[in-house]
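Hi U.,

Before I forget, here's the chain from the pilot set. I'm dumping it here mostly so it's searchable later in email.
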Amino acid sequence: MWSRISACAEDVLAAESIQEAARRFFAAMAPLGASYLQARVYRRPVAPLTAERHLAAGGIVARIAPTTWNMDSDACRYVCLDCNPLLTPIRESWTRYSFGDFAPHDDRRFGLYWDAMSEAGIAEALCATSYGEGGKIASLHLGFAHRQIEQEDVAAAQLSGLILTERLMPGRTAHNAHGHPADRSRTRQPRVRGRGQDRLGDIGNFWHIGSDCPLPCR
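Structure:
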């Protein structure tokens, strides 16, 4: 697990941009079954947090998702506005959790929620969040196409995710895994083999990768 985290950190921290850092992170997580990524940097609303205010905060810097997953989709609007169980961990400043922690799969109240999430290819998702001064928040949502995720993989994804969110946070200096400023002149290719390589090969045909989405999903 630690070797995976270290390798991911090297790739993420050597990236030229935060968008490239997010893409490298996803490439590193693809062998674990990652199917979706959203990274945001935004400021916590001053007024009491609601789904509408959370959505309006914007701040998407990268998203890897089906092209149909946007605010024109009834499913996306449902999980963003009508049933957003993630407001609780955001209010309480959680740094790591799974979506299932707050939307239990065996709770019928969230049946429609998980049906909607399946349209984005998400059966479970993990979150990692960093908090900065002035209410700044950098968050990662990493979706998986399968519900059961090995605990070691959960830990690897979330701890690596915190490295990414620290990299995304404005004003934080990027350092490599040894604590030295990242050398931008020596970039490394993401380690993707086997199943992860096949998954990334499909992205160009079916998935939208970019930072041009005007609104966050959650």
